[in-house]
Amino acid sequence: MKIFNQPITGSEVVLDEATPMAGLIQFYQGFNARDLETVASNWLQSKQASMSNPLGGVKRGWDEIAGVYERIFNGAATVYVEFYDFSLHETESMFCAVGRERGWLEKDGHKLELAIRTSRTFLKYRQGWKQLHHHGSMDNPKLLAQYQQLVSGRQEAV
Length: 158
Hints:
Blueprint: E1 2-4, H1 20-32, H2 36-42, E2 50-53, E3 57-60, H3 62-74, E4 78-90, E5 94-107, E6 110-125, E7 128-137, H4 141-152
Parallel strand pairs: 2-7
Antiparallel strand pairs: 1-4, 2-3, 4-5, 5-6, 6-7
Helix pairs in contact: 1-2
């Protein structure tokens, strides 16, 4: 297990596409640019892919997962996250990154600071990596409710 304190924002230069860091950087590059094509190329395009996060609940298969990202990227809210304080657990054919995301969500002049526990599992695929699973959760129920409200556009108070 390797522990990293330097955050991944997606703006890092990838020197070796075969490294786990390249897979992580590609995801955050696509996410923070609201680039569904880059995010899609990072994920395993299979029914085996799964995601459990604060917005979408449990999604299985790339088609369901893509719907969550489309909602985030095409919505009125802007979301930025970076991955930090994480560990990498590696084998030859897969790795799991376990850590935290911090960032913000901004919509209609409201800015919400985000704190998310995150894990991402990748499979070795040709010369690089494909994301197989993502899990994200928020410890603070009030933060979770505000996040869901701002992204979904619901008007009821939280």
